[in-house]
Amino acid sequence: xxxxxxxxxxxxxxxxxxxxxxxxxxxxxxxxxxxxxxxxxxxxxxxxxxxxxxxxxxxxxxxxxxxxxxxxxxxxxxxxxxxxxxxxxxxxxxxxxxxxxxxxxxxxxxxxxxxxxxxxxxxxxxxxxxxxxxxxxxxxxxxxxxxxxxxxxxxxxxxxxxxxxxxxxxxxxxxxxxxxxxxxxxxxxxxxxxxxxxxxxxxxxxxxxxxxxxxxxxxxxxxxxxxxxxxxxxxxxxxxxxxxxxxxxxxxxxxxxxxxxxxxxxxxxxxxxxxxxxxxxxxxxxxxxxxxxxxxxxxxxxxxxxxxxxxxxxxxxxxxxxxxxxxxxxxxxxxxxxxxxxxxxxxxxxxxxxxxxxxxxxxxxxxxxxxxxxxxxxxxxxxxxxxxxxxxxxxxxxxxxxxxxxxxxxxxxxxxxxxxxxxxxxxxxxxxxxxxxxxxxxxxxxxxxxxxxxxxxxxxxxxxxxxxxxxxxxxxxxxxxxxxxxxxxxxxxxxxxxxxxxxxxxxxxxxxxxxxxxxxxxxxxxxxxxxxxxxxxxxxxxxxxxxxxxxxxxxxxxxxxxxxxxxxxxxxxxxxxxxxxxxxxxxxxxxxxxxxxxxxxxxxxxxxxxxxxxxxxxxxxxxxxxxxxxxxxxxxxxxxxxxxxxxxxxxxxxxxxxxxxxxxxxxxxxxxxxxxxxxxxxxxxxxxxxxxxxxxxxxxxxxxxxxxxxxxxxxxxxxxxxxxxxxxxxxxxxxxxxxxxxxxxxxxxxxxxxxxxxxxxxxxxxxxxxxxxxxxxxxxxxxxxxxxxxxxxxxxxxxxxxx
Length: 803
Description:
Blueprint: E1 2-6, E2 9-13, E3 19-20, E4 22-27, E5 38-40, E6 46-50, E7 66-70, E8 73-76, H1 80-87, H2 89-95, E9 101-107, H3 113-117, H4 129-142, E10 147-159, E11 162-165, E12 181-185, E13 188-192, E14 197-199, H5 202-214, E15 218-221, E16 224-228, E17 231-242, E18 249-259, H6 266-269, H7 274-297, H8 310-314, E19 324-331, H9 338-352, E20 355-356, E21 361-365, H10 366-390, H11 403-418, H12 429-457, H13 466-474, H14 505-525, H15 550-565, H16 575-578, H17 590-599, H18 603-654, E22 657-659, E23 662-664, H19 667-723, H20 756-767, H21 775-802
Parallel strand pairs: 4-8, 4-19, 9-18, 9-19
Antiparallel strand pairs: 1-2, 2-21, 3-20, 5-6, 6-7, 10-11, 10-14, 10-17, 12-13, 15-16, 17-18, 18-21, 22-23
């Protein structure tokens, strides 16, 4: 079992057994099938190719004329159902058990790869592997109620060695600013910047599939009218958690469905211009793919050239990695395409030599793991208590010690050192460890007490500090042997620390000079500086911060958000609307009507809008005040730092005192350090408050914009319904009617008859009971077509408006 870590999650992969890649061949149906050249084996697992010798090469002709290819299956005149059952069903089924899977379609252009992988959206029976795999995944999820399974999908396109997200046209995704890149980590290969979409039902997955299909790049040439000009990889991500077990383990897997662009001979396809450039990139990437396959099939090769192109790099996990790999080779059955058919079959035979090592992908949730460990710890404590009771031991507490117990052990250690306690009773391992720890604490405290007593009585000089010893000897305070110079009766004088009030005059003068410098620097800052002359004395800062009532603010904003989201337009038969005057012959100007709307139907939205705006202004005011306080603290910190630097330079001039590597400073410098520390703490607090206020301002701004948009939208609906819809149709817009205000555009309010969508829905209910599984497929298809028709219409209107 391999173990990998990533953040709060741990990844475990069970080592699987190595297995070879499964390869299948699908022959495209044709009226001109070469029966004399292409033969199938009796078991439908082999295909033989026979070519007649070219007599133009003479009598001695060593041209190869026969080839035989052993595969896992040959699909000739096979339906889409049979292809899926044979090729993909087992791979998809094992994906829900934690195994990765890859299904790849390979072949020359026009051989039917896209039809095999995607199928046609016009006929439900002709759907390909991809929509059938989505259906199977959701069917298996319904059959496993004991597991919570989530499904996500992504759609990648590789066009001219560039990566594109085929689902970036969705409104909530948008185009990426930075180009997508292929990134490798211990968990495998993934595409940075590729959007992954959560799908909770089958219809949503089909909608994403059809959305991506409409964004694919296709072109036309002599071999294929709708030739795919890019490689596409549709990935299904599956994550399964058990509902019945509290185990922290869960499984993940992914299914890569790869539709490769077809290789083409430029002489046959007749490609020119942009299509020629695309064909060059396609053939180049397929050549690199074949080189990687050849290297994987050679057991002696150590280096596999995955990074030669984007296609092989993106499929690094699938090619010989941790997955069930299936290759479906599409070939022509015509004699004119026999060379390309041989090339495709050679690729399939090389792929069959590649081995993979599929294994179950298990992950462990760190939070659930901690909870399980806590439960296990409590159970072990209970078992230990039972063991103590059976062994007639007194009640032992195995929990971590609290402050009272630590203080009691400290007291026992002190009494033991003083001799008043003969021995310390041993209870458990935690108590022994804490006793040794308290011995260390008591020893450290005694060392500090001795050092402080010596400092009060003497000035300590390091024996290795020869400069300090030489200076004391020159002053006549110590003789050559290091003894103090004093009276002969032995009562000499020592080197003590003079009080601050009795320091030499030079130092007091320098202090005065320093204060004068601070005063001058404070005057330069002007009257706006918070540092006055009195505050130049060394003391702690007196800056007071007003705490913000964040909980109340968040509560207010939550209430505003609920009010904003729950606004519903007032009914059209309200008392104000019943008493309103008759409709004027000409609509009033919109500014005048807007004021009436804010006083009548939009009064509630307008009230919430004003309240949200007042909250936003109040947050901005508080943010401005907080910014001013931060600037004031920053200026005070700068002044304090300048004072510290001055004290440090003064201490260096007068001589520094050290003891055991510790610098000895005077009281004034110590107070400056404390003041600077307090100022930094206040600065951090204020800065955090400012960050919170900025987040609140951004949130309030979002609510204000939402209210403004809602107000304008409701006004447009009210204005159109009040002055443009005929009065005889106003009854249908009342609460008792079948139409709510704003549901139907004004342009269609006069034609409420049955449209094409209604006819389709009725027809669908009549015909689809014979195949109920197709409802999600057709619904997604219709929604996608409606969306793109709408976008085309809007683009046409915009272009016409520009002209």
